[in-house]
Amino acid sequence: MPRELITVSVGQAGNQIGSRFWELAVQEHAAANPDGVFDDAMGSFFQHVDAQGSPVGAAPPGAATAGAAAPPRPIQQLRARGVLVDMEEGVVDGMLRGPLGELFDRQRQAVTDVSGAGNNWAAGWASCGPAHHEQLVDALRAEASDSLQGFLLLHSLGGGTGSGVGSYILHMLEDEYPEALRCALSVLPDECTSDVVTAPYNALLSLARLQEHADWVLPVENQALAAACGAAAKAAAPGTAAARRPGADGGGEASPFGAMNKLAADLVLNLTASMRFGGQLNLDLGEIATNLVPFPRLHFLAPAMSPLAPPRAAGGRQGPAGAAGAAAGQRCVDQAFLDVLQPAHQLVKLHPKQTSLACALIVRGAAAAADLPRNIDRLRRSIRLPRWNPDGFKIAMCTRPPLGAPLSLLSLSNSCGLADTFTGLHARFQALYRRRLYTHHYEQHIELAELEAAGEAAAWLADSYRQLVDASRPPDPARLRGLQSDGGSFGQNSLRQVPGVAAVGGTAAAAVTTKRR
Q: Taking the complete model, does pTM exceed 0.70, yes or no?
C-alpha cells in the first residue's frame, strides 16, 4: 500500500488551487485506470468508500483463494484525503456544491466560518485558529491512517486566513503528528499583483513559521505564474487575445487566475507522480527533504516545469513512429531540460543559473534513462553546485505521463537565488514597519515583538542563502545553525504556547487566549 498524503487547503487561494488540483487528480487517475477499479496509485490521494461513506475493504469475503492475491474491487465512491479550511465559506461552499462535492464529507472535511480574518495574520493565528482548534484536530484525525506519509499545505501568504490559520495548522501538525512530513506550497505576494496592503506583514510572519515548522516549502509567486501562463498562451496562439491574457488557459476557467491555479495544481501532480505510479527511479516526499535540505531552515525549493501547457494546446502534433519517433522523443527530453533553465519556466521569480545547494529532477512519461546523463551534464555547466555537494542531483523517473503530454519535467532547486526573493519581501515589510503603519491591527492579537522577530527571521534567511552563493567557499555551520540554537528565536515555543492551546495534565486543550487591549 502506498503511503498516504493528506492535502490541507487553507484560505481563498489555497482552496482555489485545491479545487483545480482535485479536478485534475480525478482526471489523471481515471485515464490511468480505465478498468474503474481502486488501485494502489489511487490510495495516496483517495479513500474507497461505499454509499454510506464507510471504507470499502480490499475484496469481498471469500473472493481471495489460498495463496492468491485478492482481486481489486470496482470503485463505488471516492473520498478525497483532504481538509478544506476557510474563514469565509464562499470558495469552499461553491466547491462542495459542484461536481467535486462528491469527494468530500462536508461535516467532517470542511472547516469554515463567515467572519474572515480581515487580511490580518494575527487574527488568523490568535483568534480564528484557536476558535476552530477542536474541529481542525478532528478533521485531520479522521483523514490520518497508519500509512500516513505526511501533509501538504496549500495556501497563500498575502491574506489573513491562508497565512495566519495556515501557520496555526502547520504548528498544530508538528505537535499532533511529529513523525509525519509537513510540506507546503506557498503563494508569495509580490508588488505587481498583490492588492492587500498588509501583505508584507502577513508574508513575513508566515515565512518565520514555515522556517520553523515545515520540512520543506515550494514557494510560488503570482507574477511568475502569470508570466509562465502568458508564455504558454503565446505559444498556443501568437498574437491572439488568449496569448495576451495570462489568466486564459483555454480550459473554460472563468476566473482570471484559472490558468495560474492549474499550473500550481500541475506542480503538485508532477511532484507526487513518482510516489503514486511506477517507474525506474522513485522519489517520495521524505527523500526530497533528505536530499535537498543540507541545512536547517534552508528548505525552500524553487520549482520550474516543462512543458507549461500540453503540446496539443501549444500547437504540437503526435510524433512519428520508429527511429524518427525515438529521435523526436530524445529532442523533446533535451528541450525540457533546456526549458527548466529559462526564466519563463520558473514558478518563483529568480534567475535559475545560480548556485543551487541541491536539485531534484522528476521526469514523467516517454523518457529513456540513457537521455538523463547527457542532460544532467548540461545542467552542471549552468547550475553551480557547492564543492561540498558536487553530485547534488536527485533523479526520479515515472512511467505515467501527465494528461495530454508525452512527458514532463519538474525541477526543484534549493537555489541561492531565493535570497533576492526574501530580501524583496523584507524590504517591503520594512517600508511599512519603520513607520509603524497598520501595526495597531496586529497589536490587538499579538505583541509587536513578533513582527520584529519575523523581520529578523526573513533577513537571516536571505543572508544565509546569500552566504552560500560562492560555491567554492565552505559553509559556516555555526552561522547557519545559529538562529535555531537561539532559545529565544521566533517560533521556538511548543504547541502549548500557541494562542488558544493550553497544556493541561500533559495534554493539549483548547482555550481561547487572544490578547485583549
A: yes
